[in-house]
Amino acid sequence: MPSAPLRSVTPQTDTRVASSNRVGSQSRQLRLAFISPVFLLPADAGGKIRTGNILRSMRGGAFNVTLVSPATVEQLERWASELAQMCDEFVNWQPRPALPRWRRVGDLLGKLPVNVAADRSAEALRVVRETLATGQFDAVVFDFVHAAVLLPPGPLPPSVCFTHNVEAEIFKRHGETAKQPLLRWLWRNQHRKMQRFEAASLQRFTRVVAVSERDAQQFRAHYGLTTVRSIPTGVDLDFFSWKAPQAPGADGPVVVFTGSMDWEANVDGIRFFIDEVWPLVLLRQPEARLRVVGRNPPSALVQKRAPRVSFTGFVDDVRDHVRDAQVFVIPLRVGGGTRIKAFEAMAMGCPVVSTAIGIEGLPVDAGRHYLLADDVNQLAHAVLALIADADLRQSLSTAARELVEARFGHRVAGERFEQIALEAVNA
Question: Which of 155, 185, 364, 399 is the most exposed place for a label (fewest CB within 10 A)?
Fold first, then answer.
């Protein structure tokens, strides 16, 4: 059903948008405040994609949802119809201008992890506090553990933290792979801060949602959480429809990677792939092309001008780039949570090559749904095998799509998330 037009109300510095309820009177629904530390549109990062899918799946269900996040007036005007598909009401605070990295050096000396400190502002704290102080909400969700920095003092309504990663684990892995002593020290320092913040913050919530059972087990083992529940990684099967893998075109075979290129884990993985794996691929397939699709690629990486490598920057739609490729590669060495990009590629029919960390937390079988490759030679061999073998591409593509269709549509994830929120209300 198309969303109703949004009506805007602008009290002082807040902007609210509301849409019609699709399932009868609002009195039959519980009220849910959903706090996001980032504006969810455009959906150009895995966390934003996952959260957006959850919210769209919950629309018209058990909860009347008020989404609370930073947003400018221009963003609200541009994305009004998309917001109406995610929430019944929207409350914003004005985002702070992004600071250059050198201006954030002082945050490294503070008690908070640097990426948590970036989400804390007086305006955000005020809007979250005033929104929850109305007493009208039956439950509240904080999206990402970073958002816990916005928790108001005092009692909360039944609360849920939606974790997309085990954040401390990401910092730990960066510290293990960093080559420079100063960077190793910085990552390890941030790991200790995030471990303290994550452990203390998650204890405050009625329920904690993990994006895989593997992450849930980590929270139980390391933080002693008994309130954690897991949801499957969901993908929009209609949007990411299947297409049989394509044979290489006249310009040569295509290997593709998608992901936000301002996220350190993606930058590390692609730098590693370009520097160490890609030369081995070109020795056997000199016409092969690597296409890196994602916002804000670092200039140092782009300016290296590696042979047969292109960076698209932000794109409105990744589907044509993925369907044009013979191989979808996930060469991650650090990271956490689950990579929704893997299921999107599988849903579209593009065969996947991934490291163990790249596919971590997803219940898929190596050799049947994707090819597992963890070192330089394995990655090069797997990429070359898929370029050369049409039957292997077809086999992986078909099995992966069948798995995603059977178990990982985004509505399944949304229904499970709603059940956990209701469990929190009734706890």
Answer: 155
Question: Do 31 and 140 sit in the same domain of this protein?
Answer: yes
CB-side exposure of 80: number of CA atoms within 13 Å? Answer: 15
pLDDT tens digits, the chain, 427 residues: what are they? 333 333 333 333 444 454 433 333 344 689 999 999 999 999 888 889 889 999 999 999 999 999 999 999 999 999 999 999 999 999 999 998 876 665 666 777 789 999 899 899 999 999 999 999 999 999 999 999 999 999 998 889 999 999 998 999 989 988 988 889 998 999 999 999 999 999 999 999 999 999 988 899 999 999 999 999 999 888 888 889 999 998 999 999 999 999 999 888 999 999 999 999 999 999 999 999 999 999 999 999 999 889 999 999 999 899 999 999 999 999 999 876 568 899 999 999 999 999 999 998 888 999 999 999 999 999 999 999 999 999 999 999 999 999 998 888 888 889 999 999 999 999 9
Q: Are 362 and 421 found together in one domain? A: no
Do 343 and 275 belong together in one domain? yes
d(CA 291, CA 255): 6
Query: pTM to 2 decimals?
Result: 0.75
In this structure, the strands spanning 139-143 and 7-9 are: unpaired
Task: Please give the Cα distance from 158 to 427 (Å, whole number).
Answer: 8
- Domain check: are 400 and 421 in the same one? no
Range of the domain at 12: 7-234+410-425
203 and 95 fall within a common domain = yes
Give the strand pairing for 254-258 and 327-330.
Answer: parallel
Q: Which residue has the tokens 């061999």?
A: 381
The pair of three-digit structure tokens given for residue 258, joined into one six-digit string? 């998608």
Q: How many domains does the chain fold into?
A: 2
- Positive or negative, the Cα torsion across 108, 113, 118, 122? negative
Q: Is 82 found in the same domain as 41?
A: yes
Q: Is residue 349 part of a domain?
A: yes
Q: Are residues 118 and 171 in the same domain?
A: yes
147 and 191 both lie in a single domain: yes
Residue 271 lies in a domain: yes
Rounded CA gap, 92 and 9, in Å? 11
CA distance 230 to 143: 14
Helices 340-348 and 390-407 pack at an angle, to 10 degrees, of 120
State the residue for tokens 């050369």: 388
In a domain, 242, yes or no: no
**Residue 247 within a domain:** no
CA angle 70, 63, 137 (to 5 degrees): 65
